[in-house]
């Protein structure tokens, strides 16, 4: 009976050691997986932030475009008050036109 108890105790000890090794392996795998998950989360946050910024910039551009159109209509209305030649009208438009900003 003593031999079987020692044998059972040894089996139990080995099983415990194996379970500890298994747990450590699972933890090691989890650590390896966590880094890519954190990188993915960061990438998702970056993309979401960029999308929000793009929406803001698009709204700003739309507002600027709308205001530019209003200004052009107002300028055209003012120019129409004067009897200008086509060349004079072009000169007035040139005065109010701005070249695109260089980056």
Radius of gyration in whole Å, from Cα?
37 Å
**Overall mean confidence score, pLDDT:** 86
Distance between the termini: 89 Å
Largest sheet: none
Q: Number of helical segments?
A: 2
Task: Classify the secondary structure makeup into a structural class.
Answer: mainly alpha
Which term fits the overall shape? rod-shaped
Strand-helix topology:
Layout: H1 2-80, H2 86-96
Describe the model:
It is a single chain. This protein has 103 residues and is mostly helical. The protein has two helices and no strands.
Q: Descriptors for this entry?
A:
mainly alpha, rod-shaped, 103 residues, 2 helices, single chain
A few lines on this structure:
By secondary structure, the protein is an all-alpha fold. It has two helices and no strands.
């Amino acid at each position: 009976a003593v031999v079987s108890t020692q044998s059972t105790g040894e089996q139990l000890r080995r099983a415990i050691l194996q379970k500890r090794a298994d747990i450590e392996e699972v933890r090691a795998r989890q650590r390896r997986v966590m880094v890519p998950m954190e990188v993915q989360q960061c990438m998702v946050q970056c993309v979401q932030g960029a999308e929000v910024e793009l929406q803001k910039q698009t709204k700003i551009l739309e507002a600027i475009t709308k205001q530019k159109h209003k200004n052009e209509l107002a300028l055209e209305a003012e120019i129409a008050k004067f009897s200008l030649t086509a060349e004079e009208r072009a000169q007035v438009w040139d005065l109010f036109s701005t070249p695109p900003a260089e980056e």
